[in-house]
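Re: that chain you flagged

S.,

Sorry for the slow reply, it's been a week of failed gels. I finally had a moment to sit down with the sequence you sent. For the record, here it is as I used it:
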Amino acid sequence: MSPSQDPGTADAGTPAGAAPTARLRVQRVRPAYRQVADDLRSQIMRGVVPPGDRLPSEPELATAFGVSRSTVREALRVLASQHLIETRRGVRGGSFVAAPDPARVVEDVGGALGVLVTTPHLRMEDLLEARLLLEPAAARLAAQRADAETVEAVRIAAEAPRDPQDPTGFVPHLDFHTTVLMATGNLMFTMMGQPVHDVLRTQLDRDRVARSEWDEVDECHRVIAAHIAAGEDVAAEEAMRSHLLDLRVLYHRAARWRGPGQQT
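Prediction finished late last night. Pasting the structure tokens below so you have them in one place:
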């Protein structure tokens, strides 16, 4: 494996017929280890190095990229933190390309959002706007695609009783929305929606909203589930959109954090 390189980047002094030595074209505005990590990540994502394959050793990578071993080592740490490679010790050890794990990706994104909500950069409205774009479309697709078993899972999620071990009461409510995302059969819907749900689960205080209003939320879930079960895609989409617009009012009241532009 060698760094990505455009024609004409080899040393002009290379003798004719000799194999040019690949060099990383370092951009001063970005650390060299980031550039090495980006190049390796690109090759992994393009399947140049498939899951399970071993990457070249640190000395081999350092030679290929024209950087120090410490730079390569830092680049590999970046890839490991992104779960793209895993390091094994021993005689047959080294850095190996890891198989993608959707659950890990969702967890990482959720963790990143969790950090963002402690800063002034992420507003409650940002999360709600994202849901308003994603979940009505998911309800429509679920009504179009869900088989009998999936429809039953959506119905059960809509009817789920409150968990006495969940004082916030958000588990069954957000689990219903996650189940609708899963009912699309499209993994990307689940991966995009779940981190947002995880943040809402931890950043909302249900005690700021009357119990009767949460009962209305339960009823909305049952209506959406019924539309999905009947294959009524347009009605399911509109019911989900109306439901999320109603939730905006409740969520702003229940929010534990205040981003820029939000009233206290």
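What I noticed first: Residues 6-22, 259-264 have pLDDT under 50 and may be disordered.

Talk soon,
D.
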